User: Fold this.
Amino acid sequence: MKYSGQTITAAPNICWGMVGDDLLLFDPDDRRLHVLNSTAAMVWALTDDSIQVGSIVQQLSAEFRMVPQQIAEDIESVVENLLASGLCIDTDRPPAPALRPPRLPRLQSAPTTPGPSTIGPFTALGATILIDVPDPVLCGELTRILSPLAAPQLDVSAGRGVLSYRIEMTVRGFDLFVNGRTIARHMSRSVCLRTLLSDCNASPLDFVEDAVVLHAAGARIGSELLVFPGVSNAGKSTLVAQLVQRGHGYLTDEAVALDVDSLEAEPYHKSICIDAGAHSLFPELEPLVTDASDDTWDVDPRLVNPGRLSPGGQVSGLVFPIFRPNATAHLRPIDAIETMHRLLRNSFDFEPLGQAGFAALIRLANLTPAWELAHGGDGHLELVETAAGGSEVLSLR
Assistant:
């Protein structure tokens, strides 16, 4: 046998979980999900400790009461695939450690006493935000856009770091810094605004603890909390803005943090980003134009429908929106394995959580009804409301 004397072991940091009879393995480094059949699952389970391939053949032949030669070829094929996919490693030739980008340094207190040009604090997921902005136009726009996240005082409690932004005005435009690190230089006013807001969405993820974060919108429809994971331009913000207009509760339009133990969603009531293509749906929400304005409207959710902010809670359903121009809206139930593929494609880096984060997504996929929502921007709101209402047809898995 080709691999008989070779010693292998499971690769470090591989996350695993069961969906029905299938074993799912996930490598956080390359973000690939692997679905193993029963034979491959039994082989991988034996590699928890270093083991020779010949020993795997002997153990499984005894388990199935077969002559080793009858299963050796199949076992070696499985081993070859496990090694090629990086799920197992040859213990004589361990792989080089993966290179990870450095994480943002955590500040547990503000670096300086807030001055007259400092706005905040604001809270965003795992972080508290302060912004030193001497330019009055940018100051006014940022104050308006971030007002839904305004906090009564600076929060440096356990699990919450500080993001201290500084904007400098130069003869060549605006320079932007966070916690002493340069983000960008020589920007126009509008580009500086959009760059800072983008970083305000991304950097707080470095401080989230004990939660896996989905790139998703969320709304409470009646007693049901629906989460809408999806890629950019899937229509998440437009969908949730329309649902809030119809009287439903706003959770977020950007990121849903799920507690790894309870699977409860944390509210993130940031301004809703309405792209130019959806402006005609919300003409009454157009903000005043300033020198920092661009094609995106950042709308306070409290203006869309006052009093419609959801406190979060247990997730009742997952709806994955896909925008297709001129498509007829329809919902398609999806199974737990397809749900896992989509959750992983629409989750932010949960490498610090490792197995705990993956196990939380496995439980979410196993326990929560899920659908694909294909739409062309019309007719999909009623389908979402029907799904939240538990229609007998739409709730089938």
Remarks:
- Confidence is low (pLDDT under 50) at residues 108-112, 391-397.
- The CA atoms of residues 279 and 285 lie 8 Å apart.
- The two ends are 44 Å apart (CA to CA).
- The chain has three domains: 7-90, 118-207, 211-388.
